[in-house]
Amino acid sequence: MAPKRSGKGSGQKVRVEFRKNRTNRTRVNDLTRDAAPAAVVGENATDEEELDDLTGGERLSGKGNLSRRRTVVAEERDGQLIRDVDVAGCLAGRVISAIGLHCLVETEAAAGDAGGERYECTVRRVLRTLARDGRNAVVTGDRVLIRPQEADGVRDAPGGAAKKMAVVERVEPRHGVISREHKNREHVLVANVDQVVIVVSAADPPLKPALIDRMLVSAEKGGVGATIAVNKCDLPDADRPRLEELAALYESLGYPTVLASARTGEGVDRIRALLAGSQSVVAGQSGVGKSSLLNVVEPGWSLRVGEVSGWTGKGRHTTRRAILLRLTAGGVAAVGDDAGWVADTPGVRQFALWDVANFEVEAYFREFQPHIPHCKYPDCTHTHEDGCAVKAAVLDGAISRVRYDSYVRIISGTE
Ligand SMILES: Nc1nc2c(ncn2[C@@H]2O[C@H](COP(=O)(O)OP(=O)(O)OP(=O)(O)O)[C@@H](O)[C@H]2O)c(=O)[nH]1
Ligand SMILES: [Zn+2]
């Protein structure tokens, strides 16, 4: 278990104050909360339950109900407030699914412990206050510290199986967050995404490189890696030489590209290997075979989805929540951090360009980067301008015309 951080790393300790005021309760989702500066967040909600949230490093001060204040020690890392907790007795885990302040956590392997235990968790309210937006306090894919509840640690679940209970004490800093906008607010679907697996089909529906490039731009903008799976290569309409050329192009740009078929099993071993050790989301048009491919990669997944959904009380087809699935088959290491995790997230299946402005797009075409500084005009859009180094690179073959066409289609809004 990691030692308690103090003055370590780039993190700076901050005190987060919570004003406790019983006479002036505000709704938890009060919009004004968003206007508060990151480090000092006022929260008026107060009840006995919340007093229980106070642990070692936190204290209550002030007198009387009207002006009780408490201070939570947190550390600012990567712009996120991380709560300082006594890690003794805590376990590190990964959020498999989350709804509000409840989540299902699977523990990670630690010294002398294989991990893989699942706990139903509640989340300390203080974590909601620390989060920039309380509703995203704990999301699928989060790495967390949980404290198992010893007293009534086990209770009977509806299905009869004993369940372990715990409390989420801390959410670790996130990377690779996939979110969508909902009513003008960010709704985080999955956190800690290492890569997006972009699934397209060789035919039926026909392959459109521009669609791949759009999704690559989204991945680049989100700071997550990307892997491309071209499914349905078994179809007679699949143009092999063209597919191989395309795969070579994307591979040369650093995007692993697999020619695959859920029907024949082609490419499945490589996809499995690319998933191992990462937390991935799968994206792609409807009908390209994402589900089919995943079911061949890990035949047991549909079954496990059922179990998780059973816990949330919702059937697979009614929940829009992201759920993490663990890769176990195929001889790939499947314990602890070596396991592959895939988020089943209906909301990101169409991994669209949500909020990429035209002027930003060039930055997400990797191969343009060495050329852009040599354009004659600093605000060159690489379309109609003369002295454009990007267009020159297309002419001399250093940049693929397919990719350049995608770029033009994206910024002209025709794709
Ligand atoms: N020939 C061929 N057909 C495939 C292959 N993979 C999937 N299909 C077929 O393509 C259709 C769509 O497959 P799905 O797995 O449902 O596609 P999906 O991408 O999950 O679709 P959505 O759930 O709508 O997003 C089904 O009829 C599959 O049988 C393949 O490798 N080869
Ligand atoms: Zn240019």
From TrEMBL:
Chain residues that bind GTP: 231-234, 284-292
Any one Gene Ontology molecular-function term assigned to this protein's record: metal ion binding
Listed cofactors: Zn(2+)
Principal EC category: hydrolase
UniProt-annotated binding residues for Zn(2+): 375, 380, 382, 388
Single GO cellular component term: cytoplasm
Limits of the EngC GTPase domain: 191-349
Keyword NADP assigned: no
Cofactor: binding comment: Binds 1 zinc ion per subunit.
Region (Disordered): 1-65
Sequence ranges of Acidic residues compositional bias: 45-55
Record's keyword annotation contains Hydrolase: yes
Gene Ontology BP term (one): ribosomal small subunit biogenesis
Top-level division of the source organism's lineage: Bacteria
UniProt main location, coarse: cytoplasm
Keywords: Cytoplasm, GTP-binding, Hydrolase, Metal-binding, Nucleotide-binding, Ribosome biogenesis, RNA-binding, rRNA-binding, Zinc
Pfam families assigned: RsgA_GTPase
EC number: 3.6.1.-
CP-type G domain location: 182-351
Localization of this protein: Cytoplasm
Record function comment: One of several proteins that assist in the late maturation steps of the functional core of the 30S ribosomal subunit. Helps release RbfA from mature subunits. May play a role in the assembly of ribosomal proteins into the subunit. Circularly permuted GTPase that catalyzes slow GTP hydrolysis, GTPase activity is stimulated by the 30S ribosomal subunit.
Subunit and partners: Monomer. Associates with 30S ribosomal subunit, binds 16S rRNA.
Family of this protein: Belongs to the TRAFAC class YlqF/YawG GTPase family. RsgA subfamily.
PANTHER family hit by this protein: SMALL RIBOSOMAL SUBUNIT BIOGENESIS GTPASE RSGA (PTHR32120), SMALL RIBOSOMAL SUBUNIT BIOGENESIS GTPASE RSGA 1, MITOCHONDRIAL-RELATED (PTHR32120:SF11)
NCBIfam families: ribosome small subunit-dependent GTPase A
Protein name: Small ribosomal subunit biogenesis GTPase RsgA
Species whose genome carries this gene: Alienimonas californiensis
